[in-house]
Amino acid sequence: MQKTILHLDLDTFYVSVERLIEPKLQYRPLLVGGTGDRGVVAACSYETRGFGVHSGMPMKMARELCPEAVVIRGNAGTYSKHSDVVTAIIKERVPLFEKSSIDEFYADLSGMDRFFGCYQYASELRKTIIKETGLPISFGLSINKVVSKVATNEAKPNNQLRINLGQEKPFLAPLSIKKIPMVGDKTYQTLRNLGLRKIKTVQEMPIDLMQRVLGANGAVIWKRANGIDHSPVIPFCERKSISTERTFDRDTIDVVKLRGVLLAMTENLAYQLRRGEKLTACIAVKIRYSDFNTYSKQMRIPYTSADHILVPKILELFRNLYNKRLLVRLVGIRFSHLVSGNYQINLFDDTEEALNLYAAMDHIRNRFGDRSIIRASAMDAKTIGRMHNPFNGQPPVVLAHRKQ
Questions:
Q1: Cα 320 from chain centre
Q2: pLDDT of 7 above 50
Q3: What are φ and ψ of residue 286, in 5° steps?
Q4: Are 378 and 402 contacting, i.e. CB atoms less than 8 angstroms apart?
């Protein structure tokens, strides 16, 4: 049976989400990422690209290239929430799909032509996603993942493209060799040094010559340039871990600040667990010092999603890991061994007051954003992510810290 593979990509996803939250940002140059001098651009709007801005470049350089751009510190929790909505739509309508990243999907529509017509079905799916989420999305459709991915990139922004059977090589031929998935900056420069610019030239080269130049990767790149790809769509399974980290604008030994950042990150991840009806059984803390040496410790714990259980354990790991004589560049937290389930009452430790507090806090976050309520001891860390503020310039609700 002939394969039919659909590739879906949410256009400038982080930017699109921010514009959905704040419509005034439409058509304005927008940068999303770390806002300090050490930050990098996680996403940029099409309006900034004419200035030479691209994702992955230092934010400081991007601001210099496009000084009129609006800069927003991204919020992973917000983006995950919108990604989950898109995933649910695809899951409901597609029998076999792969989620390759937060904003990118593959779907195997093979055999559906006899019932629906794959292109029509993909078009309707795209329209549904746009209508139900408000997010722009593009797709490519062909006989394999590689050609479909290239087709999506050519269709952008917010469009669609089908490559008919037998047209894979002619479609790829006039494109730049940099359009081949797997060709990064280093490989691109190697190929350019050989005088290669267009994919057509690679198609005409012997495969063994590509292997001599690039080793085993040369054969893979040659096959992709010729539209050959047999990689399967890997069925989607839910994530087994969630994590977050913070790189400081300046290296620090301020223990109060470090503890506040860890507390805020733990609270946020715990809320993400509860919102997704997940529990964690393994937690880890990571520290990167100013000399770039990185260390981590992890701990197995009973399944939980409760702040008052997770926070002391995270701080305990931090105390055991932290070297007070060294400046800290980055701290991070990871929750793994995730399973589905709601937090169970611990009859020995929990109080009705504590459980009601979680319910109230999560209700506020669900309604106004995951940064709308924080503990006072985490105030210094409130810039970990973009503070979604529904109170028209007023500060978020702050809870005084009290030991349970």
A1: 30
A2: yes
A3: -120, 140
A4: no
Q: Which of 22, 47, 104, 316 is catalytic?
A: 104
Residues in the chain: 404
pLDDT, tens digit (0-9, with 9 covering 90-100), for 294-323: 999 999 988 888 888 899 999 999 999 998
Question: Using CA atoms, how far apart are residues 392 and 337, in angstroms rounded to an integer?
Answer: 39
Specify the amino acid at residue 297: K
Which residues does 320 contact at the CB level (< 8 Å), separation at least 6? 297
- Please state whether beta strands 160-162 and 30-33 pair in parallel, antiparallel, or not at all (unpaired): unpaired
DSSP 8-class letter at 240: S
Partner residues linked to 276 by β-bridges: none
Amino acid at 39: G
9 membership: H or E segment, kind and range: strand 5-10
Distance CA 148, CA 150 (A): 5
**DSSP assignments along 346-359, one per residue:** -TTT--HHHHHHHH
Q: Is 352 considered catalytic here?
A: no
pTM > 0.90: no
**For the chain, what is the radius of gyration of the CA atoms?**
24
Using the Cα atoms of residue 288, residue 289, residue 295 and residue 301 in order, give the sign of their dihedral.
Answer: negative
Q: Which of 167, 194, 164, 197 has the alpha carbon at shortest distance from 180?
A: 197
Q: How many helices (H) and strands (E) does the chain have?
A: 14, 15
How many angstroms separate the CA atoms of 18 and 16, rounded? 5
CB 153 within 8 A of CB 176: no
